Amino acid sequence: MKDLTGKTIYLKDYAPPAYLVDEVHLTFALAPEATRVKSRIRFRPNPDSASRDFFLHGEELTLISAVIDGAPVTPKITEEGLTCPAPDAPFTWEAEVEIAPARNTALEGLYMSNGMYCTQCEAEGFRKITYYPDRPDVMSVFTVRIESDLPVMLSNGNPGDSGPGFAEWHDPWPKPAYLFALVAGELVNHPGSFTTNSGKDVELNVWVRPGDEGKCAFAMESLKKSMKWDEEVYGREYDLDIFNIVAVDDFNMGAMENKGLNIFNSAAVLASPETSTDANFERIEAIIAHEYFHNWTGNRITCRDWFQLCLKEGLTVFRDAQFTADMRSEPVKRITDVIDLRGRQFREDNGPLAHPVRPESFVEINNFYTATVYEKGAEVIGMLKRLVGDEAYAKALDLYFERHDGDAATIEDWLQVFKDTTGRDLSQFKLWYSQAGTPRVAVEETWEDGTFTLTFRQSTPPTPGQPDKAPRVIPIAVGLLGPNGDEVQETTLLELTQAEQSFTFTGLSARPVPSILRGFSAPVILDRQSSNAERAFLLAHDTDPFCKWEAGRALARDVLLRMLNDGAAPDRDFLGALAATLADESLDPAFVALVLALPSEDDLAQAQVDAGRVPDPQRIHEVREAMLDAMAEALEAPLRRAYDAHQVPGPYSPDADAAAARALANTALMLLSRRDGGALAQAQYDRADNMTQQLAALSALLTAGAGDDALRAFEAQWKDDRLVMDKWFSLQAAHAAPDAAATVARLTEHPAFTMKNPNRFRAVFGAFAMNQAGFHHASGDGYRLMGDWLIRLDRLNPQTTARMCSAFQTWRRYDADRQDMIRDTLRRIISVDGLSRDTAEMIGRILDA
Length: 849
Ligand code: 0A1
Ligand code: ZN
Fold this sequence. Notes:
The protein has 27 helices and 31 strands. It is an alpha+beta fold. The site of zinc ion has 4 residues, from helix 3.
């Protein structure tokens, strides 16, 4: 394969910067096609570096002038930046460059979205704004002046002078360039305020396009809750006079934690009962919290280099998960996080894109904002907390904040505070940061003379570049149940450190049933031979909500696999266990809904691969559908009762209890609609006054084959709301049908389809990639269509294209025909002239491994 992937950067090559920056002054004269950026930067030689090579990053910039200490200079310019002789003493650099935000479709650097100027600088976007040492270990104080006729002009920090045609901002806290932000446009704000624990008043604003001001209240409340929570739980206060959030429609990710000026994908901030589902509300609350929490874990303590990305992301995801658990239901949050982890991170860890939580090399850092860095990174923190205990965790965090405030830190720094707090040797634990792959833990049990023994064996399969793996420390939370279902051993933490290790429990009067990996205490795959009777027993009796749900899930997987592999009929005992769960009124309805949800088609495909089979996506779809039909038939009466009993009266509220009731009612509706031709769903559709009810009804109508009218009505009602129309697109692309590729092709011809908006592109192609039977249809039409569109998108937006390439990461699990067709598509993409470095790296990795 020809090498299109460009230069590889290695962690081991880290070298400190030659020059540090004390102060930056930036002046922006905004114009869509020709924005002028003037910079005045105070540099000083870094005493910790022997190098005096003066290099500034810069890409796609037109240099107008450059001056050092008042004297014009002529730097040498390459595609990556500039070099220039510089004094071995403090000096002032002044430069002016020109950029064209209106032509920036990559949405990195300074760009325009619906007439509004905005920036995205993480990870390496600042170099598209001006020449600068664009690396996170260079932290500086920024002062910004914006010149334009637009009414609202924002940047980081606190507001300074402003007047007609200009606004100034000053951020007193040193920060790396990736946290720089600028916004200018015709915006309106939803104001609020917060008084910190030490009595400081902070002005809060959510800025949106005119017309969206009615959708800001929930984000504002979420922000205040986050600020309070971080004070109460982590002792962290906000540190500026003002905190601004801005919603933009065109954004590659969810949101960005720029200091004092968070920029959000509008999908992650705008909320109203009519236009947002319960899941949207929960996600918005979590993302607002995530970005806010970054103020301490990311901004005040940042990363030394991009290999340390998990230092801020793993910790911040862990903190936002704790927050959601506190605001809502802890068990439900844990179970949904595990479903997500398995669906995205385990899948990544098991294929050609596998990489350690702290990668050791990359070509394009934007390709490493992954489920592994974020979600597995958060799991690693959860394990550390479990191993050292809550109290030591709290102490270690206090020490982390005290010791590293203002630093650009590393994973070594992070682990050192735990070592210093607890005296614990964390060298084996550190393997979680360096070894890729999901450990498999096999467990066997014996019962002899009143002694119960659990023997664990761990192993991690090879991953790209890492053939052999050493045993890790794996915290395994275990409880034991007696034959009558009572707990005879409460949760205890076993520390597995060897390849093979046994633990015994004595003093038991009868052979217990073990409940293993409680709370999903480690991100591993547990292999345990168990009977379905025992699984049903655990589903009925386990006191640990995660293991209780997991028992039901294992049961479902087993009966589905027997249907797939042996042509078995839907299992009566399984249906009985579901009926018992439905009848148990002591359970949280959200939990019941999770038990009723079957493993995804992708999960089943992976389960088949694990059993040495080649998955047939079409057949998996049919079998899963047959099981859903059987559930609808066997459980009709209790489902109907659950549906009726969980209608939420009164005006819509997004709180956890109301959302839980709707989750169960809508799960019941999906099943009931398989048998009534969609009558109940149509009735719900017609009376729905909120998006959760409306969308669930529309989806149920599609399942019932009776959704055409509702789809038209929905489009007519919501054609002017971009975020709601994304749902309309995505529901159709996700709906499995033999001609799914044709449906998707038709959707791309809809006047509202556009490649320029990442949300819209993902609504169609992201949903299609999740539609296993449609995307992997034997004709190969799905692969070709996806390939065509990724090639087109790459010219506009490399980042989003590269992320979408992961649709192909499981390709080696399929039959030879499908593999050939996918390989052809991947080769077609990688041979495109001028393909981006982002996409080239992704396709190269997917093909090579
Ligand atoms: N740091 C942000 C995520 C983010 C990363 C990269 C971006 O552009 C390439 C944008 C946002 C977060 O964790 O929320
Ligand atoms: Zn983050």
